[in-house]
Amino acid sequence: MALITFSSLMHKDKTVYAVAGSRTQTVLSLAKEHHIPIDFGCGDGECGTCLVKVSSVDAKRSPMGGQLTEREIKVLRELGHISQAQIDKMYVDDLCPTQWRLACQMIVRDEDILVEYPSK
Ligand code: FES
User: Fold this and answer.
1) CA-CA to 74 of 20 to 30 Å: which in 8, 91, 97, 101?
2) Among 13-27, 50-64, 78-92, which is the least confidently predicted range?
3) Distance from the CA of 112 to the center of ligand 1, in angstroms?
């Protein structure tokens, strides 16, 4: 069981439980389930609307999440949130090289995280 805290300037922080190891639940689907207003468009890793910032609630365990998906890499590059050097490092370290993620692509894992999303 993981604790996911959603945070935004315009909304009160909300912490929810996520079932770890489902391998299919995305941060966006969890947010929708709990009525957390993360903006989204395509829901398929192509538009970048669901951009969020993900960090560890335990400073000893960062960076968080698994590797970026190919779709995340493409969109994050277009948005200027990741460099080729960071991408190369990800394949060597097997760690996510950035806090920027697409909520519709990031799968919830067994780790407590803070998800910051833009206010609308
Ligand atoms: S909703 Fe379009 S990339 Fe996530």
Assistant:
1) 8
2) 50-64
3) 23
Cβ pair 38, 103 in contact under 8 A: yes
Q: Relative to the CA of 41, which ligand 1 atom is closest?
A: 1
Residue 40's contacts (CB-CB under 8 Å, 6 or more residues apart) are: 28, 49, 50, 103, 104
Q: Whose CA is nearest to atom 3 of ligand 1?
A: 45
Task: Break the chain into its structural domains and give their ranges.
Answer: 2-116
Q: Residue 61: is its pLDDT beyond 60?
A: no
Q: What is the pTM of this model?
A: 0.90
Contacts of 38 (CB under 8 A, 6+ apart): 6, 27, 28, 31, 32, 50, 52, 103, 117
For residue 110, the model assigns a pLDDT of: 85
Mean pLDDT of 50-63: 77
Q: Does domain 2-116 have CATH number 3.10.20.30?
A: yes
Q: Token digits for 44? A: 């398929």
Residue with tokens 């970026």: 68
